[in-house]
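Forum: Protein Structure Q&A
Topic: Joint prediction for protein chains with partners

I've read a bunch of threads here and the consensus seems to be that you should model interacting components together rather than docking separate models afterwards. I'd like to see that in practice. Below is the full input, 1228 residues plus whatever partners are listed. Could one of the regulars post the assembled result?
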Amino acid sequence: MLRFDFLEARNLRHAISLLERHGDESRVVAGSTDFLARWRQGFWRPAAVVNLKGIANLGRISYSPQNGLRLGALATVQSIESNAQVRRRYQALATGATSFAGVQVRNLATIGGNVCNASPAGDTLPALLAFDAQCTIAGPEGSRTLPLTELFLGPGRTALKQGEVLTQLTLPAPLPRTGSLYIKHSPRGAMDIATVGVASVVTLEEDGRTCRDARIALGAVGPTPFRATDAENLLKGQELTAGLLAQAAEAAEAAATPIDDVRGTAGYRKAMVEALTRRTLQYSLQMASGRAMPFEEQRRLAVQTAF
Amino acid sequence: MATFKVLEQNNPRVDAWEKVTGRATYAGDVYLPGMLMCKTLGSARSHARIVSIDTSLAEALPGVRAVITGVDFPEIRFGSGALKDRYIMARDKVYYIGEPVAAVAAEDEITAEEAIGLIDVQYEDLEPVVDPLASLRAGSPSVHPDLENYEGYGFTIEGGNICTLLDADRGDVDQAFRDADHVFEDTFRSQGINQGFLEPMACVAHVEANGRLTIWASTQGPYQVRAQLASVLNMALSNIKVIPMELGGGFGDKLRLAFEAFPALLSMKTGSPVKLINNREEVFTQNGPRHPVTNYIKTGVNQDGTIVAREAYTIFDVGAYLGAGPNSGIGHGLGAYDIPNFRLRSYAAYTNKVYVGSYRASGVADMTFAVESHMDMIAHKLGMDPLDFRLKNAIKEGDIAVNGSRVPRNGLVECLTAIKEQLGLPKELPEGHGVGIALCEWRSGTGPSTAAISVNEDGTVSLLTGSVDISGSDTSLASIAAESLGIAMDQVIVAKRDTDLAPFTGPSGGSRIVYSQGKAVEMAAEDTRNKLLALAADRLGVPSDALACADGSVYVQDNPPQALTLGQLAAMSVTSRSGPIIGNASLSTLPYAPVFSAQAAEVEVDKDTGQVKLTRYVQCQDVGVAINPMAVEGQLEGGAVQGIGRALTEDMQFDPETGAVRNPSFASYLMPLALDLPELETLLVRVPSEDGPFGARAVAEPPGFGPPAAIANAIYDAVGVRIRELPLSGERVLAALRGEGNDIAYIGDELEELKRAEGLSV
Amino acid sequence: MNKQPLTMTVNGHERQILVAPYYSLLDTLRDELQLTGTKKGCDEGDCGACTVILNGKAVTSCLVLAMSARGAEVTTVEGLATPDALHPVQQAFIERGGLQCGYCTPGLIMAAVGLLEENPQPSAEEVKFAIGGNLCRCTGYTKVVEAILLAADRMASLG
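Posted by a regular:
Agreed with the consensus. Here's the joint model:
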């Protein structure tokens, strides 16, 4: 816990120039939830923080069938959780957001912060990956886009370069007959870091049986959250029988490379990948087949409440 | 049930307004002019000789006013209970990671923090001892090689790491086992537990120019803090005033001296007030938690289900120091049952971990998990209903309790019956669901208690006791005074106390306040009433036995209009022969009054994840009389939730190599949240105690004992696996479901060693 | 790193103070504004004891940089009651026994106030989610949930 200076970014260009000027000595903050907790633990020791929170128009959430879902990097996790379009079309993202910490932290934490922290256990990340999120990044040389799958390099490490700021995440509009869910495995119904998190997205063909597309992303079982592509490939073009879902779940388990820590052993985590992949696929399939599932019910499944 | 005017009513807490408005003042809320902030440096090593400590860079940092190390304190060992095994700050050796080795006072917290980082300690490592079972083995390194020379040491066994033994025996146990139709034995292990109070350890110390030290403390035991401070600072007791501030939870960990001596010494050095507030990591790593306990239990039973013999051994890890004293859990090795022959032993072993503290009837929750799981296992093996098996062996009025006392009238059977009816036992539940019960026993706490009541001219009374409010005890004491004196609750003023002002009282812990302190208040109220009656008799010209005291007046029973209000009497008393009215009482101990509670859990086990969902929790406790039913229920609910956390999610993990706490935060030490609980069902049985105030019994401890066993038994009922180690985590349950692992260390070899050392046959 | 000027509205009053750039909103309220009703339980965002209402939303004030609250509206537990009456949530906590040691109480009350501002008629389940970030070691939460539901009913009937 060492002193730091507070630098207020007036706009994006100002933020980039502050970050360029202060380089490694500075640290971006927005919601500051992760930053302050880890600064007090001595993990972060910046000379200055650059506050993005005051930048206008960087927290918008919008949806259109053409452009999909656009999440400004400063959108809070709570605003995403309670957004009607997110709840309706991106259930895995709404349930990922709802399983994140508690409401007081969700009201502060930003989606950009959750992404840039690049925690293997970040609760919104599997859903963003499973919805093929694209990152918009502003930097000294202008703006660029990058698939989210290419952003994560390791625990806490991203492909962002000096002076770059994540400004937006774009999630393509789901096709009709799509369902999705995130389930977080942890001992409590809130406030935990995921032992394992799994997000699945299932899209059916017009026949209502054949899988047109399936995407599965895993959290807390590798150095970064990642897509279980072998498992996805087993499902595409197939009729989704219980047996096939179980095979996909086993393939996801095989792709997981977890560690032992205070939250669980590697062996248990792998077993949870299997169980949660199977479940998220089942529920996603149900929703894709047209069974409406109220958000309250999704939420109970996502955080495994006691009631 | 007797009719009461104040008791048995849901009156609001006396401190409720202050607490809901944010006005209640806790130790951390004390801000004094010129106050400095204190931070401590914790040891980076688990077991090491301190070669040198260089504080020069820290002292030179602008804003730093003083730095202290262990040698700045008098070379005086202190301890809890009889054994003096520690210094207040490490002198020549460190015994656990996190042990304070230096402290700084600076103008603000961040400067103090920076200064701590500039202190250079050179260590020479010694071999650490982390596993308590290993610490018993011959050839284990010694945590305290000099143990035999410590003041208060009274027990010796080869190996040197055992510091205390608690034992109790009755009958010929070995013969009874030989004669029994069946003998069952099991080993259980419970995990490390943190008290989890929300208010971190905090205090402010200020030494006046005249040398008098004032401590604004977060404590359950102001007189204990005063005495221990006087000892470690080598000061006169009378030169210390401890002001117990509002207490943000203690649960046993704030019964004794914590770090108050650091800001006290820093205040002496600087002349300024000094504040110390632990951060949450320090609470986990530096304040005595509960360590894992291994309980071995053996029971001899006859074919008809009668228990004839019990043997129980506890191996209790105390960490680096015997912070909370020996483990009293062994005294509950019989459970709530009448067992004629028994041998109970609890060995405490040192290891290089943070020293052990007290927590809500220390050791009894661990023992109840063992006893009540074991009881269930026996019932199943005998083919008996678990509830009937318990009823058959339940201790009754007139039996002799483990402590040798005659068991008085109690509500044990009523509690079990109430649970049975509430749940409709025995019952069939859907696949994957199960129900389990546990029976819990405790005794009403006692110990030195005092109270004084003075009557004010407006008819209110001022109540002075030395006990710190925990769990609404001030409200209970005010209720008892009001009921006794026939006045309303809001006519009782509970004085804010300190050690200069209030008479000596034992600490607030062990469920003793309502039972014993409440008794002192009842007796003081009686004394007050007698004085009021005597004065009224004199002024009204009638004998005092013709008078009654109710509704704020003393009146002639045959002619109620002939009366004097308490206010009038108080005003008259000022000039009366006997002077202003004040009633006093003190007592040291009250007789044994058991407390019984029956608890039941319904669970759903997720066979894919092993995760246990608690779907229902029912408890019924014999409270004697409910001083305030809302407060009593609150105690029972809160206690049960602590036990539910112990059962399912809480787990202080220690590094097996270094003994360091691996999860020192609320993000990794998982206490239950509102989302994790069903609505709790709380039932009260009222069989008055013989000696408690108005028949009240202790309340606070038993609710936390039952959940681990009730839930473990419910898991067995649901899916047929028996988990003997806490917590009952998804990982453990899944492993058991898959037939993997779930076996805990066999401790037979260690027990044989211990028995041989004691001269018992093996 | 000198203190910097900060203006914000706290409990309806505009406050102009100087704050160290690394200070949290929680430390600012307690150390600079003497509003000690807001409690520090963990300083890591894990317990909810420091909950205040920031621009209409319940937040853990230990995780807010004070300087980022420039121009903000902050309500703490001290700002709920009027001179004549407690806030209905405060009153309900007293009547239903929703508090014991009291250390988590201001945070729970503020979380409840935050919930009721957005959802005046919550179900018991919604209450549990809204206080899912608040640790309480004394009460077991049952009476806390009851108190919040009682307050919601009373506030609804008052309109």
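The CA atoms of residues 411 and 622 of chain B lie 5 Å apart.
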